[in-house]
Amino acid sequence: MRYIEPHAHMVSRTTDDYLAMATAGCQAVCEPAFWAGFDRGSVDGFHDYFRQLTEYEPKRAAKFGLAHYCWLCLNPKEAEDLKLAEEVIAIIPEFLGRPTVLGIGEIGLNKNSRNELAVFEKHVDLAARHNQLILIHTPHLEDKLKGTKLIVDSLKADGRVAPGRVIIDHVEEHTIQLVLDGGFWEGMTLYPESKCTAARAADMVEMYGGERLWMNSACDWGVSVPLAVPRAALEMRLRGHAPDAVENLVYRNPLRFLSQSNHFKCD
Ligand SMILES: [Zn+2]
Predict the structure, then answer these.
(1) Domain 3-258 belongs to what topology?
(2) pTM of the model
(3) How high is the pLDDT of residue 100?
(4) Which of 85, 117, 150, 234 has the most C-beta neighbours closer than 10 Å?
(5) What is residue 165's DSSP assignment?
């Protein structure tokens, strides 16, 4: 089976994970910029991180035959320091022309604070001015519905970004319809503990279809499973979904969305 891992924080994973993903049929892995587990103290910390994502990690992935792409931003968890956020947003354009950069992400909201929303809107402005794809993180648990509404309303009010060039990630049963009604793509994040299990993901596909959907593992430094996408594909096969329909979800859909960036190439 072929699949694309469209959202994985590989800088926090081992080479064993790359080997397992390549063995399971992964064709390409895409890494959104993320929080490091602690707040970075300066714009130089972000500059080094963006170099790691665009220079070093593609070489590490290539040792396992995997293409590695990335998304750039300052994560909402670090958005409370508005001065730092502005400094980081100012250095992103120097990286956007690099051949493996797909767009701006994962931006979004974490606690739905006023500063987070201001920094989200600055990132959307950056993406609009540079014609970039956008990958959006939505908050957890009780903050998710409110945060998703704030994000959708903000994007509609801006009006410069085509919804088909935006993917809103970490959707759950109560936010899918909101995302689809806005014309956006939806991402389902498969986690062993929080977020969405393979069984819940399959249930949601059966309820809402999978026309503008990708699944991802988001594997990071926390408890997470780098093979979550092929495991969800197995869950769907065991439920009787046709192989071609499963490949649409885990391979052709991310290929279709990501190919809107002319940097994305997947044989
Ligand atoms: Zn993530």
Answers:
(1) TIM Barrel (3.20.20)
(2) 0.97
(3) 98
(4) 85
(5) G
